[in-house]
Design a protein that fits this description.
2 domains; Glutathione S-transferase Yfyf (Class Pi), Chain A, domain 2; Glutathione S-transferase; Glutathione-S-Trfase_C-like; alpha+beta; single chain; globular; 4 strands; glutathione transferase activity; four-stranded mixed sheet; Glutaredoxin
Length: about 200
């Protein structure tokens, strides 16, 4: 596979935002890649104009470049790369594929709600921590109970939504708040112990 260049905003905290989903995905898959961060205010407008001219009409970040191809949107990019890897991170049946589609779609709603944690008023931040986050944790703990042999969404096989969910736990600052959500707690522990992921997470400390 061609070398990948991943592009995303520099948001201060190295792992904050959607770009980290793809970073974790590429790390786990052992794919050679560069991670290029840029300023949203000063660099992005010109970059966005250029990628739209080059045919990436969504004009959004994160996106990747592979040779002369520009591929974007987080979940479609994951599916594209998984397909290139022989469906390594896909489901094996229609039912499994449906579950992956549903969970990856619902993660978008969770991601949007997290913005209140960083950009909301003090009252909105408090409500997010005390009400909104527990609701999401309960919902996703239920999803992770669908396959009893765990710890991943499809049991013992990791798939692309697992990267989305783990990173939401990180962005929502609740990796240390999982005692009441045993399925998510087991998932996060297993995810962090994956060899490539473990090495990467250590490098962030």
């Amino acid at each position: 596979m061609e070398k990948i260049s991943l592009y995303y905003f520099n948001l201060g905290k190295p792992t904050l935002g959607r770009g980290e989903n793809l970073k974790l995905f590429f790390v786990d898959a052992g794919l050679e890649h560069d991670y290029i961060r840029f300023n949203r205010e000063t660099e992005w407008p010109e970059m966005r104009e250029e990628i739209i001219k080059d045919g990436y009409y969504a004009g959004s970040a994160p996106y990747i470049k592979m040779g002369n191809k520009i591929i974007g949107r987080t979940v479609p990019t994951m599916r594209y790369i998984s397909t290139k890897l022989g469906n390594k991170y896909h489901g094996s049946t229609d039912e499994e594929s449906y579950l992956l589609d549903v969970v990856s779609d619902v993660t978008n709603d969770w991601f949007e709600s997290i913005k209140k944690l960083y950009l909301g008023s003090e009252e909105e931040k408090k409500r997010h921590v005390e009400v909104i986050t527990p609701n999401w944790l309960k919902k996703f703990d239920n999803y992770y109970s669908c396959y009893k042999d765990g710890p991943y969404l499809l049991g013992n096989k990791i798939t692309y939504p697992d990267f989305l969910v783990y990173h939401l736990l990180d962005d929502d600052q609740c990796l240390q708040r999982l005692d009441e959500y045993p399925n998510l707690k087991a998932f996060a522990k297993a995810f962090e112990e994956r060899p490539n992921i473990k090495e990467y997470l250590i490098s962030l400390k």
